[in-house]
């Protein structure tokens, strides 16, 4: 896929995507408001799920929203400025996800990429991202398991793009993000198979019973 942009311009935008993803939202939140690095607690990840387990629902929402924006804003910007640079658009999205997983500002130890990956999806196509998020919430309600719900819903979103989008680079790109999400959740997948994965308690009942 031939690009009309210089290598420097392309690398600059990819770097912007990576640096945006590298903003260590969870680490900053935990250090500023709780004087502790969240990576020393719970699962050791800096994402919204571990934030929520240790600091509550409100904290999880704040971190999740910012992590979504880390993926949303860069890909939305590059789509608006270079709408026909399909490979670059996808690479900026992938770079944002990699930045969240391996943030240069936090010792390359980040989160499991769910929120930022959904942000990339929303930045690519708002309606596909919205529908995938609704499927995510439906799965969470039905299964009470965040990891399984995230993996399942994102897989469906990526497959939809692969089947319906004329530009194969997007289908392949979002499938790569999906596979990377599975890799980042490999411990969760093992716990799901073992029946020991953490589940949400909705207050009215205990889903582990």
UniProtKB/TrEMBL annotation:
<feature type="transmembrane region" description="Helical">
    <location>
        <begin position="118"/>
        <end position="142"/>
    </location>
</feature>
<keyword id="KW-0012">Acyltransferase</keyword>
<keyword id="KW-0808">Transferase</keyword>
<feature type="transmembrane region" description="Helical">
    <location>
        <begin position="87"/>
        <end position="106"/>
    </location>
</feature>
<dbReference type="InterPro" id="IPR003811">
    <property type="entry name" value="G3P_acylTferase_PlsY"/>
</dbReference>
<keyword id="KW-0594">Phospholipid biosynthesis</keyword>
<keyword id="KW-1003">Cell membrane</keyword>
<comment type="pathway">
    <text>Lipid metabolism; phospholipid metabolism.</text>
</comment>
<comment type="function">
    <text>Catalyzes the transfer of an acyl group from acyl-phosphate (acyl-PO(4)) to glycerol-3-phosphate (G3P) to form lysophosphatidic acid (LPA). This enzyme utilizes acyl-phosphate as fatty acyl donor, but not acyl-CoA or acyl-ACP.</text>
</comment>
<feature type="transmembrane region" description="Helical">
    <location>
        <begin position="12"/>
        <end position="34"/>
    </location>
</feature>
<keyword id="KW-0812">Transmembrane</keyword>
<keyword id="KW-0472">Membrane</keyword>
<feature type="transmembrane region" description="Helical">
    <location>
        <begin position="154"/>
        <end position="183"/>
    </location>
</feature>
<feature type="transmembrane region" description="Helical">
    <location>
        <begin position="55"/>
        <end position="75"/>
    </location>
</feature>
<dbReference type="Pfam" id="PF02660">
    <property type="entry name" value="G3P_acyltransf"/>
</dbReference>
<keyword id="KW-0443">Lipid metabolism</keyword>
<comment type="similarity">
    <text>Belongs to the PlsY family.</text>
</comment>
<keyword id="KW-0444">Lipid biosynthesis</keyword>
<comment type="subunit">
    <text>Probably interacts with PlsX.</text>
</comment>
<keyword id="KW-1133">Transmembrane helix</keyword>
<dbReference type="GO" id="GO:0004366">
    <property type="term" value="F:glycerol-3-phosphate O-acyltransferase activity"/>
</dbReference>
<protein>
    <recommendedName>
        <fullName>Glycerol-3-phosphate acyltransferase</fullName>
        <ecNumber>2.3.1.275</ecNumber>
    </recommendedName>
</protein>
<keyword id="KW-1208">Phospholipid metabolism</keyword>
